[in-house]
Amino acid sequence: MSQWSGDFWRRGETLGEHLERRGVSRREFLGWCGKMAALMGLAPLALDGGPALAAEALAQKLGALKRPVVIWLQLQECTGCLESTLRSYDTGIGDLVLNLISLEYVELLMAAAGEQANAALEEASSQEHILLINGSVPLGADGGYCTIGGESAEAVLRKAAAKATHILAVGACAYYGCVQAASPNPTGAVGIQDVLQDRAVVNVPGCPPIGGVITAVITYILTQGRTPPCDREGRPLFAYSQRIHDHCPRRAHYDAGEFVSQFDDAAARQGHCLYEVGCKGPETFSPCPAIKWNEGTSFPIDSGHPCIGCTEKHFFDRMTPFYSKLPTVPGLGLERTANRIGAVAVGAALGGIAAHAIGSAVRQRKERIREETVVSLPIVGAGEHQTLRETDES
Amino acid sequence: MTTAETKRVVVDPVTRIEGHLRIELEVGDGAIKNAWSCTTQYRGIEVVVRGRDPRDAWAFTQRICGVCTAVHALASILAVEDALSYPVPVQAQLIRSLISQMQILQDHVIHFYHLQALDWVDVVSALSADPSETAKLQSELSPSWPLSSAAYFAEVQRKIKESVSGGQYSIFTNGYWGHPAYKLPPAVNLLAVAHYLEALDWQRDVIKLHTIFGGKNPHPNFLVGGMACAINLDSDVTINQVRLDQLQHLVDRAASFCEQVYFTDVVAIASFYPEWFRIGASNPNVMAVGEAGALLSGTPSQTGALQPGLLLGGDYHTVVPFEMGKIAEFITSAWYTYPQGDEVGLPPWEGVTIGRYTGPKPPYQWLSNDARYTWTKCPRYDGNPVAVGPNARVMLGYAQGLTEIRDLVDDSLRRLRLPADPSLLNSTAGRMFCRALESVTTARRIRASFDSFLQRIKAGETATFNPARWEPSTWPAKCRGVGWMEAPRGTLSHWVVIENAAISNYQAVVPSTWNSSGRDAKGQMGPYEYSLAHGGDHPLVEPSKPLEVLRTVHSFDPCQSCAVQVLDDAGTEIVQVKVL
Hints:
The complex is a heterodimer.
Chain A: H1 15-21, H2 26-39, H3 51-63, E1 69-74, H4 80-86, H5 93-100, E2 102-106, H6 114-125, E3 129-134, E4 137-138, E5 147-148, E6 151-152, H7 153-161, E7 164-170, H8 172-176, H9 178-181, E8 189-190, H10 192-195, E9 201-204, H11 211-224, H12 237-240, H13 251-255, H14 288-291, H15 315-318, H16 330-333, H17 338-348, H18 353-367, E10 372-376, E11 387-391
Parallel strand pairs in A: 1-2, 1-3, 3-7, 7-9
Antiparallel strand pairs in A: 4-8, 5-6, 10-11
Helix pairs in contact in A: 2-3, 4-11, 17-18
Chain B: E1 7-11, E2 21-28, E3 31-39, H1 45-49, H2 57-62, H3 71-83, H4 90-116, H5 123-126, H6 131-141, H7 150-164, H8 186-206, H9 208-214, H10 241-270, E4 286-288, E5 295-297, E6 309-311, E7 320-321, E8 327-330, E9 336-337, E10 354-355, E11 378-381, H11 390-399, H12 403-415, H13 428-458, E12 478-487, E13 490-499, E14 502-509, H14 511-516, H15 527-533, E15 538-539, H16 547-554, H17 560-563
Antiparallel strand pairs in B: 1-2, 2-3, 3-15, 4-6, 5-12, 6-7, 8-11, 9-10, 12-13, 13-14
Helix pairs in contact in B: 4-8, 4-10, 4-13, 6-7, 6-8, 8-10, 10-13, 11-13
């Protein structure tokens, strides 16, 4: 609560009330609005009274602004991302929904159901709002794999996105489909950016992401008035620009060649490096070691389990078997050339969704800033986990 | 079909649950005449785990649900260990029990305050309460609970008032405030709202027990053969004295909130709604394989005080022994097909699932014209629809004469001025009450588990992993196993077949599948449907405001992502998916 108890605009107050509380006088506010009105070319519109009236009108309009309206959709998913949000400490969920935003549609927590819930969604969708999405969109069965209020997940998403000012795809499902998109992707699950191809989508990867990261993306927008800078896959730099391995508290043991070779062995009991038992930290970009989980309590490596790479795209295909050490993990070990990617793309075209997945992977690849990235392309119907290594051209 | 006297009502989305659930109703004379429970999401995770390393399966199946985030991972690991005849060190078993028991406590509290309470608690009414009255009530209910001053409740009231004063209602938008079915006095409403906020802080704290042992929550990490967290009192990154002190605090905080706040709140609130102990009875059959949080491998046998068993046909005194061979799954109302014919029931070991959506192309208005209307299959025990969950466990314990259960039930019913009749527990309020009751018994269990864990460490018992069967070279060429867990929502089982070191078959039979299933081959309704429609007298005063429906459906604590789980076999049809 602390960081919001000071000057922050809060608790359903209007901007006018907020400024008053902060000791900004009505006169000062009107003066500022006058300058703004002139800047925005509003003065000529005032027929009589000139700039003073325009300033008054603007002041009235701005003064009535309230907490940002937020819609939080849950599509094809497990609710783990919202549960993670409930665990956020720096911005508690109570503070978030009561003081910072007006969360007018969130199936997990909202009082209304059925008709009343759908009416709340429609009302919130008709105005400017921030849209968060947990979950993927299943494209199979004509939308029959996931419906809400009798509408397909895709239709619900498109309607809610139309007037959204910011779109945040929260969690591995919203990013690319996560476990249900793992080979053979039985429902044709895809991520939010794959559906909303012409919109800027901020991706917040993780299965789930750390609660504090989810709320920080929201408060970043509230405090900075814009989405955080992202890499070319739409991942906020403040959370996803570092490899776990580079900040791992066990890194010194890796450098010294001190490895756990079997769980609960003497090395495990001294907290040595988990590389030999399958840790995917060297291939995983995530703030786990920096922020840790549940109020900085721990993170998987701290608790003796190897990282399974859950912030990485297609980790259920690329990072498995989870307990095989990195060079022998099939998803990471198969070297393929750009020509081979092309061949697979042509071969998979009949597979439908796989063709799409390749299309988006190639599109995203061009935009990447990482030197080398690996993607996995589960081929529908192929019955095996086909993976590719992709080398950035830049 | 509807008649002149009945009207169709759809509740979709059913909110404050996990997953996607739609309830279709026919309503007349202020009561529900017919009901259909429709799960509207499918993911096919068991299809995905086929061909994978069985040691990885926990991570895949854990993603079935992020609310009961540990239970599928635990059941999966137990199934694999059963298949591999893999013994696990006692300390690892105790760590798993602590995780499981904490999951029960945290899940039950979140369910009551954050998912269910708004069906019974009018937030708007709380704004007009006299905080000193609430303070008086709090000190009567729990004399030693510290947050009980009038100033504290006045501050809670101010927070809510300020939040809604600008005309923005956030999660309270379009709620059923002022509905005649709300009966709590303002002071009790304020008490519940204050504890709604307290429970938000509590749940994110106590769950750190998962983080210490499993590295994170939601979705902590597990390990076939034990646990990955090493115990070493003399290292700084293992389970050491600092961690033990933290764990002790978390166990104490979790237990005391359940004992002093959650249970007393539920009894206090229920005292204003005694008629709901006679509304919403499900099919008169209940089943459990152990007490809340119990973890079992193979054929269920007694693990704690409670023996596996059932109560059938409304006889709540005679315990029927549990036989796992009597479980079969039907698909008559679900969007699947069986090569053997869609009317048969298949036991989990021989189960087959081929997903085939035959419902209307969305958007649609009404699903249940068709015989198939849900993604949830119909598990049946010896042909019977059975309800699972806290009230099944409590009713079974009562029938088995467990003193701890009998005392809590009889004493509470007396305070509620109700007869000491266990059949009252099969009701909407009964399910809510039993959930709170077993948070008290589970609070005692988690304290005992932690004491045992500490004593064993003191005795030098620190092993958390057994390497004996880790390498696939030690595994039989073909084997199968089953793992059981009494999860927050009831009996959960995972069934695995392993061939040549890879999963060849996998199925989860899940609590919400038992409870939310639709009609079976005999036309018998599943528990959600039965509880709403069987008597024809379940109230629904204003069809456009389904508050009473939410009460009964929420009393089961629906978890619909869990409810839809399918087995795969060689016959699985991979759907053709259109390109965007």
